[in-house]
Amino acid sequence: MSAQEATSQDRRNAERYDRTLSALDAVGARIDEVRTAVAGGNHQALVEFVSVVNDQVSLEHRQWLAASEATKGAAAKLDDALGKTAMGTRVDRPNGPAKTDGH
Predict the structure, then answer these.
(1) Is residue 103 in a domain?
(2) Tens-place pLDDT, residues 44-99
(3) H or E element at residue 97
(4) Does 19 fall in a domain?
(5) pTM to 2 decimals?
(6) Integer Cα distance of 46 and 6 in angstroms
(7) Does residue 59 contact residue 20 with C-beta atoms inside 8 Å?
(8) Other C-beta atoms within 10 Å of 49: how many?
């Protein structure tokens, strides 16, 4: 992975983490309401609060996994192409075909 790709991936991760933080902050801002409801006997409020938090964290994790799999797929394609080049298979490049006979 090039430095530019790594930087781009880091930016996407940071944006995703920031969105997750904002969503969790919005949910967390209601914790006093949840505490009051639970203290009044409404245990379902706690169940729903935990569910919402879990959904947000799970969503971020699924997005991270999907991005990770896409990166692995791209890296596998590159490895495959590089393996073909190393085995002497000609691979067309933008500036012409690769030379494999040393000339």
Answers:
(1) no
(2) 999 999 999 999 999 888 888 887 777 777 777 778 888 876 665 555 555 555 55
(3) strand 96-97
(4) yes
(5) 0.58
(6) 40
(7) yes
(8) 19
